[in-house]
Write a structure and sequence with these properties.
The complex is a heterodimer of chains A (415) and B (375). Chain A is of the alpha+beta class and 415 residues long. Chain A contains 12 helices and 10 strands. Chain A is globular, with a radius of gyration of 23 Å. By secondary structure, chain B is of the alpha+beta class. Classes of the chains: A alpha+beta (415), B alpha+beta (375).
């Protein structure tokens, strides 16, 4: 048992470290390091532009999308090299946030299902951040139950005509392209009538409306489609086989090994270490210590769980299912951590303005953004189902709509 | 990076599991649970023959000289099987104290007997309520004689010798505590078996009246040694706890697959699934914390105190969580004497206290993190 790199890994790490030291936008490092959930803007720069510039620089030097083939803009690197890169990129990795969906989900789906000429045309600028992609799956009537989506695609000649509405589309307002899951046959059971496409987000009839979130920010959008035309060659996979295509996309969502999930613990520990309560330093208070320890072992447990997965990668093995716990644990933990940090501030915890609030309102911003983390990318409940069914081997839920034609499934609860 | 056990260590784990599944089925645990034996003597002998008792004891003292990573994988299996033997007291506490602080003669006298299964040892630390603290130690030592009472002492009623913490100074500072080795079969030692929530591992009261004792380690260094022994034992016991947690999770999962209610396996209900998913989460977090503890223990890393506390807390939480929810998944049957669920529940709650309670280790963890942060 050891934490040492193999000689090859050490050589790769040294090369990555040296390149990052010479090229990363260091003027933003401190600010990026301090940013946390709900607060990821830069004070004096547009973070989107900084992120795009960093991504392009990485791509030009062969450090973008490391695990992708070189022909599509990647480096052809091994999974462990990708992890080492993420470790070395550190706080600058936060600049990749707006590319995660494109790189993690759209790109792999294109690689598996798009025509060769499309892959060569679309993937390199996706890798380099010159083009941003979004994923158009969720709908008002299909969130956790994504196969319940209703956006229609109807074939007319060599084109498909799209009508409907998507929701919770991250980054649609700055995206150039998207992958889109539609219903092509409503007369068959819901999983059997779906088809996947990719499209230009500037196509006529596409309208993006930002959603004002409960946190007051707008990271997500509604996207409306009115007679949007998509050529048939932009179809991904067979007609009515979109469910299987989407499984490839969602499988690639489990890509965050080594990137580390935010728990809020390091911030809380620092805060308690510096906070004075009426009776003395917060960190000397028994109840504070007990709560901190409770969070500390969750945070370290996640960290070492990810180390175990990295070890498997290092040996050329597939990581086990342990990593499926990351989002579930971190999502609810960061919410509790934020609530506790406010509690420690007493009545003043209510203040969130940068002038009046502790740490310029870091924990207040975290609190208001946190409910979203327990929902996006699979709710806590869906994550528990996944662990129970895929890891523990428990039977799937009984699905009453499984064999019913989609257009006969009830759409209202209380009538 | 290889943050995992080696293939040889995993092979040893498989051997231990196979051995224990044959030699320590639930029926064997019940023999001790029902009070028909103080511990499983045949199993103890078998463990010695397999080389498991002395796996971390150097060869020169009769052990296998393998190391602490090997001991960790065996500990996990002991916890999984609820082995009703004085393994943790003898191997994690007494042997570790001897290896840390014993003279050559003391090691030569006791370690080979531990490895061969001839001697059972323990640590006599507590004196009634409360967590490990030099202030709590009132038992005195003067001119090589001990006077005072210790309780609870794990496996104290069956132990041949004990490492006893005694006060040699006046006011209960760290430097006022020293350790002594006591032959429990000698004059001046009175042993009383105590009833406890987990009868598969005994607890006793030891009363010393002018009992003859020899120093273990230098005078005034006892508390430092105890702290180190507790850290090392915390990692090892955490592996037992993770083994127990995993087994409780499996029992719950298997029952949820087999039990039909409302016309379907109860494991298809989300309310049940989510209980089991949360059990998996806690067991996985604990296992990962334990691996870090194992690394720190086996390399004698400066991180050991922090790693040991994290492993101890996480594994305590996981075993308690899995053991209580295993009963919940089983419903009424889980609350019968006949089903094995309660044996895990008893063990989970007893091991949660043995080395100091959760709140003690929480406090220790934050203390240690703070020191690291300040350094």
């Amino acid at each position: 048992m050891n934490f040492d790199d193999t000689p090859q890994e050490a050589a790769f790490r040294a090369e990555a470290k040296a390149w990052i030291a010479a090229n990363a936008p260091k003027q933003y490092e401190e600010e990026l390091r301090k940013s946390s959930l709900g607060r990821t803007q830069l004070k004096d720069a547009n973070i989107l532009e900084v992120a795009k510039a960093w991504q392009k620089k990485k791509a030009d030097a062969g450090w973008a999308c490391l695990h992708w083939p070189k022909d599509y803009g990647g480096r052809g690197a091994s999974p462990i090299e990708r992890v080492i890169w993420q470790q070395e990129e550190g706080a600058f990795g936060k600049l990749s946030a707006m590319f995660i969906i494109g790189h993690g989900m759209c790109g792999p789906t294109m690689m598996a299902f798009a025509r060769e000429e499309h892959k060569r045309h679309y993937l390199p600028p996706l890798a380099s951040g010159e083009k941003i992609w979004c994923q158009l799956f969720s709908e008002p009537a299909g969130g956790s139950d994504v196969a319940g989506l209703r956006t229609r695609a109807e074939k007319k000649g060599d084109e498909w005509i799209i009508n409907g509405q998507k929701i919770w589309t991250s980054g649609a307002h700055y995206s150039d392209y998207g992958i889109l899951l539609t219903r092509t046959d409503p007369t068959v059971p819901k999983h059997k009538g779906l088809t996947m496409f990719f499209l230009d987000m500037k196509s006529p009839g596409v309208e993006v409306r930002p959603i004002k979130q409960a946190s007051g920010q707008s990271d997500f959008n509604e996207v409306y489609f009115t007679d949007v035309k998509i050529p048939d060659h932009q179809r991904l996979g067979e007609v009515n086989d979109g469910w299987n295509v989407s499984l490839t996309t969602l499988m690639n969502e489990r890509m965050s090994i080594g990137a580390g999930v935010a728990t809020g613990f390091p911030e809380l520990f620092d805060f308690c270490n510096n906070l004075m309560l009426e009776d003395g330093p917060a960190i000397e208070d028994r109840s504070v210590r007990s709560r901190l320890a409770h969070y500390a072992v969750k945070a370290s447990g996640l960290k070492y769980t990810s180390m175990r997965a990295i070890s498997a990668l290092s040996k050329g093995e597939r990581p086990g299912p342990e990593n499926s716990i990351g989002k579930l644990v971190a999502g609810s933990m960061i919410q509790e951590v934020a609530m506790y940090a406010l509690d420690l501030q007493g009545a003043a915890g209510v203040l969130s303005g940068p002038e009046d609030a502790e740490l310029a309102g870091k924990f207040q911003a975290m609190l208001l953004r946190a409910p979203g983390t327990r929902v996006e990318g699979g709710t806590d409940e869906i994550m528990r189902n996944i662990i129970a069914e895929r890891v523990l081997g428990l039977p799937g839920d009984i699905r009453v709509d499984k064999d019913v034609p989609f257009n006969q499934i009830p759409t209202k609860g209380r009538v | 990076m290889n943050f995992d056990f080696s293939d040889e260590q995993k092979q040893m784990r498989d051997e231990a599991r196979k051995f224990l599944s044959e030699q320590c089925p639930p029926k064997a645990v019940r023999t001790v649970l029902d009070g028909k034996a103080a511990y499983d003597k045949d199993l103890w002998k078998g463990l010695a023959e397999m080389g498991f008792l002395g796996v971390a004891i150097p060869e020169q003292f009769g052990g296998a000289g393998a190391g602490h990573l090997e001991l960790c994988v065996i500990a996990e299996e002991m916890g999984r099987a609820l082995a009703p033997v004085p393994f943790s007291s003898t191997v994690y506490l007494a042997a570790e104290a001897l290896m840390l602080a014993g003279s050559d003669a003391q090691k030569q006298k006791w370690l080979p007997k531990i490895a061969s299964g001839e001697a059972i040892g323990t640590l006599a630390l507590f004196e009634g309520k409360g967590n490990p603290s030099p202030k709590a130690i009132k038992l005195t030592a003067s001119s090589g004689a001990l006077n005072g009472t210790k309780k609870p002492v794990p496996d104290g009623a069956i132990a041949d010798f004990a490492v006893v913490a005694a006060r040699t100074g006046s006011i209960g500072r760290d430097a006022d505590i020293s350790l002594f080795l006591v032959d429990l079969k000698a004059n001046g030692v009175e042993v009383k078996d105590l009833t406890n929530i987990d009868p598969t591992r005994g607890q006793a009261e030891l009363t010393f009246t002018n009992a003859k004792a020899e120093p273990l380690g230098a005078t005034g260094e006892g508390w430092g040694i105890i702290t180190q022994v507790l850290d090392r034992a915390a990692v090892l016991l955490a592996f037992e706890q993770v083994g127990g947690a995993d087994r409780a999770l499996e029992m719950g999962r298997d029952y949820a697959l087999d039990r039909i209610a409302f016309g379907r396996p109860i494991g298809s209900f989300q309310a049940v699934k989510h209980i089991l998913a949360d059990m998996y989460v806690s067991a996985t977090l604990a296992r990962s914390n334990c691996y870090y503890g194992a690394w720190a223990l086996s390399t004698n890393a400066a991180e050991l105190p922090e790693a040991a506390a994290a492993a101890r807390i996480s594994a305590t939480q996981a075993f308690q969580h899995c053991a209580k929810n295993n009963i919940q998944v089983h419903g009424g049957m889980g609350f019968t004497w006949e089903f094995d669920c309660h044996m895990y529940y008893r063990r989970a709650n007893a091991t949660a206290l043995g080395l100091g309670s959760l709140s003690y280790w929480e406090d220790a963890l934050i203390d240690r993190m703070r020191k690291k942060n300040a350094a």
